[in-house]
Amino acid sequence: MSEQPILQLKKIEKSFGETAVLRNITLDVQEGELVTFIGPSGSGKTTLLRVVGGFHQQTGGTVLLGGQTIDVLPPEKRSTGMVFQNYALFPHMTVYENVEYGLKIQTVGKVERNQRIKEALQQVQLDGYENRKPSELSGGQQQRVAIARCLVLKPKVLLLDEPLSNLDANLRVVMRDEIRRLKEELNLTIVFVTHDQEEALSISDRILVLKDGIVQQLETPSIVYQRPANEFVAKFVGHAN
Ligand code: ADP
Question: What does it catalyze (predicted)?
Answer without folding.
Answer: a quaternary ammonium(out) + ATP + H2O = a quaternary ammonium(in) + ADP + phosphate + H(+)
